[in-house]
Fold this protein.
Amino acid sequence: MPDLRAFDHVKTVDDAVAADYVIIFLIMKRPYFLWDYNFSDLEVKKIIKRGDKFTRNFLVSRILESAKFEDVWKYITLENLVIIFPELKLKKEIKQIWKKAFQAWGYNF
């Protein structure tokens, strides 16, 4: 969620309208790893937590294949990733890289 302290300066209706647009943009912004789908950052997080299995697995696979490593953990915990990892359809080389990471962390697949 965005840090809303940046909007403490809002004093007029025009300021409020501008602030609303910024907040809407931050909430609706499409994650960079989903360039071809119209999901907001919030929707991705919600689907990964409570969505159907097919869509969740698709999104997690896309994150593992296309997101920066440090961004992966903004969407899924290691514990949840370990649980669903065997179900994911990943490119072969990406799957091998993640398997090596899991082994380094003490998990075996």
Summary: Helices lie at 13-28, 41-50, 53-66, 69-72, 78-84, 92-104. Residues 49 and 80 are 9 Å apart (CA to CA). DSSP finds six helices and no strands in the chain.
